[in-house]
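Recap from last week: sequence in, structure out.
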Amino acid sequence: MVACGNKYMTKKFKLLCFTLIAATLALGGCARLPFGVSPSSQLLEYGKLSVGSAVSSAAKQPSPWPAQEWWKSYADPQLDRLVEEATSGNPTIHIAQARVAKSQAVSGIAKAAELPVLQAEAAFTREQYSERYFVPPPYAGNWAWDNLATLGLVYDLDLWGKHRNALAAALDLVQMTEAEAQEVRLAIETAVVRVYIQLSLQFVLLDVAQETLHQRQNILDITQKRLKAGLATEIESRQAETTVPAARAEIERISESIELLRNQLSALAGKGPGYGEQIHRPALSLAMPVGLPSAIPADLLGRRPDVVAQRWRVEAAGKGIKVAKAAFYPNINLTAFVGWQSLGFDKFTSPSSLIKGFGPAVSLPIFEGGRLRGQLRISTAEYDIAVESYTNTLIHALENVANQIVTLRSLEKQRTETYRSNDLAGRAYDIAFYGFRSGLTDYLNVLNAQNLTLLESQRKAQVEARFLDAYAALMQAIGGGVPVTAPPVPQAEQARKTQHVPEAKQVSPVPQGVMR
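Predicted structure tokens:
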């Protein structure tokens, strides 16, 4: 490092100093970055992906983008309360918010590197001075105080944009953590809804199991009466008796599942298990819209939090490459100081003890043992990782949307067939019951028909639960109804002006659907 500008310097020394600075800058200008160190990954543009017939057909019958509180489509006030409490009390939400605060603090540190640094320094040293040094009598050979107090200013010119790009990368990471926090929120919302749907299903299955127990008990009673009348065998009686404990065990299993699901909802809400005891039977609506916004998959880039987070990660990594490249060039600081220096305290603050100076300070990496090249390779590899992670996230996002659309379309057809089967089972029961009343058949036929009705009721409940669950999964797949807090990623042309990244590897702009 070279510092020039002290008032005690001679003109020749100042000339030599500035000549050295000029030579240093010239040497820096001739420095060469390592060849072959550049990003190798290219971003996959969403327009080049085939979304498939499932997504395309759904987009041809577009529906509005889901409301911010998309779970209210289930029309269950208890579910609304559970989601609200989970998104405010779940510790994972608080962790995500703390990560955002941490990234904001990191960006504040990066911002500080662009500003001048003003610092005060004071040193008071009791020392015995040598008789054969530059210290004059009466201090030579004696003990005395060596006192220094200065106020210094340092300002980095940042000619190569190292600090500017470091700040821009830090701000990009802030946007990334905000998008990740939104992803956590959406995941918790969806988890509450899906667990609640399973709770609703278990209550329906409990009804079926209790009705099954009642039916099997009736069969046992009739069989025992027939046995006493000599119309049935002992084997038939034992077979009918065996099914009763099995039905009770099924009721107990379902009751266990209900309690476990209540505990799970309590944990999602950030509460203790006692909170779940207040959760009563769900009452969910099946009137779910199945259409998609017409701009899928473009809207995924602007609304799905994990996709947006990965885009900001790419942007930050691209600026990290320029930060690494800037380290190959000279670093120039402007420095200035003023203060007092004296031997002893008697004239420490007198005008004669005043010191001051100013000048540039230049540092140039000449031999770093490959450290700078290694750092550039790391930054380049991080960019490649970010690009491939983004591409992977986008591909799986489209896959997820397509899967949920396929599932919902199939479940719509399954519901239709299941309802028809349930109706037919009900008619069979009515025929058997009227036959029994007319004396044309025995009561066992009635109970067997009722058993078929119970099985169909169980299938109907399972299909309805799967449909409700698939809708929640679709909401998560398209990013929910809450807009991501991150603003749009810079346009490709603007990004090329601020990054040392090849034009072919730039991030395409995020659609304007992304809102701050």
